[in-house]
Each structure stands twice: as structure tokens, then as C-alpha cells.
Amino acid sequence: MDKAFLKLPRLVQMLLLLIPVVNWVTEIIVRGSSLIRNMSLINLVILICIIIFGLFIGWVDFFWCLLFKRLIFM
Fold it and tell me: What is the C-alpha to C-alpha distance for residues 34 and 70, in angstroms, rounded to an integer?
């Protein structure tokens, strides 16, 4: 799912990260699939932080994706 998210058009990515609860669910799915694909401690820590501080990190990812065309820490 993480690679599929990056292949989506930018407008769709922005919409998924703009809506408050949808961005939290999107972050969990994308970060979870990244953890499954690449098992590392940093991916696990990021996923735990997303679960706890998901809405805030979702907004940070929105602006990061707007500027750099990818999610933060990916």
C-alpha cells in the first residue's frame, strides 16, 4: 500500500491527508504496509507514533507531501 499511495495522483494524496480521520487511517495503513515490507525499528517506532499522535502527524505529512511529493520518514 505504501508504494500504491505514492503512485496516486497528488490531488488524491492531498485529499486523503486533508480529511482529519481519513488521514489517520491512511497513515496507519501506509505505515503498516511499509513496516511489513521493510521490518526495521524505525518503521515500528513511526507506526506507534502514528497510532498515538495520528491526527497531528497527518497534518505534518500533508504539508510534507505538498512540498516534497512523499510522506515524511519514507
Answer: 13
Sign, Cα dihedral of 4, 13, 20, 59: positive
* Four-CA torsion 8, 13, 19, 21, nearest 10 degrees: 70
The one-letter amino acid code at 32 reads: G
User: SS3 of 27, please?
Assistant: helix
Contact 27, 50 (CB under 8 A): yes
Distance separating alpha carbons of residues 67 and 37, to the nearest angstrom: 25
Tens of pLDDT, residues 29-73: 999 998 999 888 998 999 999 999 888 888 899 999 999 988 888
